[in-house]
């Protein structure tokens, strides 16, 4: 059984659930994005805080999190600082990154936190321990915006994340060929069938990989990112169309 439930959202059963990123630079832009989300059909919001102009000021981050929570706190909130190494916009030392995540875990304003697995095993384990003490789930992530590792390497990274005790392993890779997309899907299916004890998130990015963002129920990815106003990575589909496709595929699989 790989199901996880957060704020009433069942992850790991049925059609993949939709995460919508918000990427505003200012608090007002973020509030606008959050208010827009209240009118649309989605499952979880991801605050990509590395885009926020005051990300270096933890108190301001908390204040803004408070506002976002008041608007969309009825849905699960994923807090993500994407490092510049893995496609984020704000270069920061590891101590900053860990401290920000730890402070936010303690606020009660977030439901999930993203930690990049290559930050280091000890950091990941510290985050997992603290998060679980505060009822926050942990997504471990890895991104390769340049290429797609071999299938066995993708499986090995997902297994490593799971072994570190995280709740949801995630990998996003860039395809250079059709074979790369097939490898990502094959790695997902192998992980799901042979090793996964928890839900997974995998995707092949850009237009070439977009098929992977809709095919999760077939291959084993339990969550998928869709764009409302602004995409946070190449290849994200419009959230409304994404839901339609996921529902169509779900019906044909049922
Ligand atoms: O890790 C991911 C996945 C992602 O990179 C994507 O390709 O949809 C988008 C990011 O915002 C998120 O943190």
From TrEMBL:
Pathway(s) it belongs to: Metabolic intermediate biosynthesis; chorismate biosynthesis; chorismate from D-erythrose 4-phosphate and phosphoenolpyruvate: step 3/7
An example molecular function term from Gene Ontology annotations: 3-dehydroquinate dehydratase activity
GO biological process, one term: amino acid biosynthetic process
EC number(s) stated in the UniProt entry for this protein: 4.2.1.10
The keyword Lyase belongs to this UniProt entry's keyword annotation: yes
InterPro entries, per database record: 3-dehydroquinate_DH_AS, Aldolase_TIM, DHquinase_I, Type-I_3-dehydroquinase
Record: residues binding 3-dehydroquinate: 46-48, 82, 213, 232, 236
Active site: 143, 170
EC category name: lyase
Family stated for the protein in its record: Belongs to the type-I 3-dehydroquinase family.
Name used for this protein in its record: 3-dehydroquinate dehydratase
Organism of origin: Gilliamella apicola
Species classification: Bacteria, Pseudomonadati, Pseudomonadota, Gammaproteobacteria, Orbales
């Amino acid at each position: 059984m790989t199901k996880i439930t957060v704020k009433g959202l069942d992850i790991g059963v049925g059609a993949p659930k939709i995460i919508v990123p918000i990427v505003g630079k200012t608090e007002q832009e973020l509030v606008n994005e959050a208010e827009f989300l209240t009118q649309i059909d989605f499952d979880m919001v991801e605050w990509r805080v590395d885009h926020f102009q005051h990300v270096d000021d933890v108190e301001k981050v908390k204040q803004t999190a408070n506002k976002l929570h008041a608007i969309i706190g009825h849905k699960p909130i994923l807090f993500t600082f994407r490092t510049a190494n893995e496609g984020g916009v704000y270069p920061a030392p590891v101590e900053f990154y860990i401290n920000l995540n730890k402070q936010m875990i303690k606020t009660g304003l977030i439901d999930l936190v993203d930690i990049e697995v290559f930050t280091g095993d000890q950091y990941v384990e510290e985050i997992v321990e603290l998060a679980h003490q505060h009822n926050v789930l942990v997504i471990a992530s890895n991104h390769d915006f340049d290429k797609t590792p071999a299938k066995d390497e993708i499986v090995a990274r997902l297994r490593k994340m799971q072994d570190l005790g995280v709740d949801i392993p995630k990998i996003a890779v860039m395809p250079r060929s059709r074979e790369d997309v097939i490898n990502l899907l094959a790695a997902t299916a192998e992980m799901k069938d042979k090793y996964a004890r928890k839900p997974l998130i995998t995707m092949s990015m850009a237009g070439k990989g977009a098929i992977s963002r809709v095919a999760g129920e077939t291959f084993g990815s339990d969550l998928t990112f869709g764009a409302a106003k602004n995409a946070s990575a190449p290849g994200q589909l419009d959230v409304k169309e994404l839901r339609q496709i996921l529902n169509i595929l779900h019906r044909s699989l049922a």
